[in-house]
Here is the input.
Amino acid sequence: MGCSGSSQAKADGDFKKIQKPKPWKHTEPITRTQLMQMRDEFWDTAPHYGGQKEIWDALRAAAEADLTLAQTIVESAGVIVQSADLTICYDERGARYELPKYVLSEPTNLI
Here is the structure.
């Protein structure tokens, strides 16, 4: 009951504030179309990595929203944010969700 990810801690408003991911660079310059294709492929296969489809859907909505709305989405879904940039999260059952940076922000070498 006293762990930081427990429901009681959440009821007290102890959520990690979501932040914009740090700038990153893809291994080679990519176009916006290529980036969107990578994102679509990830989200299409994400439920196969484990966890609940509803949590994956909430994480996708949060990744595509502005920071304020993203914060509301993860709090409403009961997502426990380990990394403030959403790269590592957990659901209330302890399932781990890892998001690649390319679904959270654009690379610095986008062409």
Notes: The longest strand covers residues 88-90. Residues 1-13 have pLDDT under 50 and may be disordered. Residues 60 and 105 are 12 Å apart (CA to CA). The chain is about 35% helix and 5% strand.
